[in-house]
Specification:
- The protein is mostly helical.
- It contains six helices and four strands, in the order H-E-E-E-E-H-H-H-H-H.
- Strands 1-2 form a two-stranded antiparallel sheet. The protein has a two-stranded antiparallel sheet with strand order 3-4.
- Helix 3 packs across helix 5, helix 3 runs antiparallel to helix 6 and helix 4 packs parallel to helix 6.
- The protein is elongated and about 80 Å long.
Length: 187
């Protein structure tokens, strides 16, 4: 497809590269698309185009739209991490004491949903762009640290290899999946 001249004397490819907010434009050499944003009527390259149900918009326009929904502060992130750490630590301790792997799945699923719901409530139901990632990080640290803490309480010795406990690993994975689903759910 050849670029035709637009009203300003520039080719469409040059107009697209000039209007792109990403400098240098990654799609400057892409002459195959002539997409326009439905909001700003700006030409979009394949890198900038984001599909919506009604057409295409630029990445920066999509991010600005999403920012209306993400209201969490650094304090909310800290609360979500702390709740996930403590809750999954308790669930991981219970799971590492159990001998039956099947119960670990049930404990992890129930604990993951309950911990994520509690974390959202304690943060004022505010979610941020990275709430799910921070909550999952707290859950993994808590669930893997629980067997180490139990070993320290039982024997009085710090043994980091205790974190490699199959029940605790499975519990951490199930809790993480459940928390991810709740935190990435609809706002």
């Amino acid at each position: 497809m050849t670029d035709s001249s637009s009203a300003g004397g520039m080719t469409l490819g040059e107009e697209r590269a000039a209007g792109c907010p990403i400098k240098p434009c990654r799609g400057a050499d892409d002459n195959e698309t002539m997409l326009r944003s439905i909001r700003s009527d700006r030409l979009l390259c394949l890198y900038c185009a984001t599909r919506t149900p009604t057409g295409y918009i630029g990445r920066e326009e999509a991010r600005a739209t999403e920012n209306r929904f993400f209201k969490a502060t650094h304090t909310d992130y800290a609360v979500q991490f702390a709740v996930s750490l403590v809750g999954s630590g308790i669930a991981g301790a219970i799971a590492s004491l159990l001998g039956v792997l099947l119960f670990v799945f049930f404990i992890g699923a129930a604990a993951g949903g309950a911990i994520a719901t509690l974390a959202r409530r304690l943060s004022g139901r505010r979610l941020g762009r990275y709430s799910a990632e921070i909550s999952v990080a707290g859950a993994v640290v808590g669930a893997l640290g629980a067997p180490v803490a139990l070993t320290l309480l039982r024997t009085g010795q710090f043994i980091p290899q205790a974190a490699v406990n199959l029940n605790a690993l499975v519990c951490a994975a199930v809790i993480s999946v459940a928390m991810w689903a709740v935190m990435k759910g609809r706002i």
